[in-house]
Amino acid sequence: MFSRLREDLASVRERDPAARSTLEVLTCYPGIHALMFHRLAHGAWRRGWFWLGRFVSHVGRLLTGIEIHPGAKIGRRVFIDHGMGVVIGETAEIGDDCTIYQGVTLGGTSLYRGTKRHPTLGRGVVVGAGAKVLGGFTVGEGAKVGSNAVVVKPVPAGATAVGNPARILDPERDAAREQKAEQIGFSAYGVTRDMDDPVAKALHGLLDHSVETDRRLQAILARLEAAGIKLDDTVAQSDHFDPGRLSRMVD
Fold this sequence. Notes:
Elements: H1 2-15, H2 22-28, H3 30-46, H4 50-64, E1 67-68, E2 73-74, E3 79-80, E4 87-88, E5 93-94, E6 99-100, E7 105-107, E8 120-121, E9 126-127, E10 132-134, E11 138-139, E12 144-145, E13 150-151, E14 160-162, E15 167-168, H5 171-184, H6 189-192, H7 198-226, H8 243-250
Parallel strand pairs: 1-4, 2-5, 3-6, 4-7, 5-8, 6-9, 7-10, 8-11, 9-12, 10-13, 12-14
Antiparallel strand pairs: 14-15
Helix pairs in contact: 3-4, 5-7
């Protein structure tokens, strides 16, 4: 138990720049205290002392603001940062080296006992503040869940999930979309990016279509030039798109 506590203290010192000393982490970090209570509660739960496990868990919640069911399985070097309002359900499993911020819920969507109702977090998963991960699926190793995201389906290893309901970010498409937005001078990205806004979704679709159209047009022009067909300057001057007008429309 003490070796795991030393690991926990060292992992907090490594991951939290606000931690100034091991003594500070041991005495002032509710995430550390919540894990200590959970190990006692989980030990009682595994021995069939269910009431005692729940009571120890309840005391831990009163003192830390972090509610961890004694049946949950938590790996090594898990860091619950700040922690107020964190709820971890009975069949949840948290892998080694995960980081969980305040207001996170690892909850269930089923009322049937004896089933896997809560999520499994792989090694090194980061769950942002206020996120809700609901259901008996797996969030893959090294994945990230954005703040206030609502995740209701599996997240692949190394992926990032954002939004409500959460969507899996495609890094290549997002980079191309952002580059196109900057190229045409469209400025609404800064206020709508990654939000569940139907206008933003429509504009993102337009940007995606614009990127794909540009790619196809460049391919056609290259083929024409390779075939010896000379193009005049009117082709480059035919685009009269006004990004400023589009930006004003969504302000």
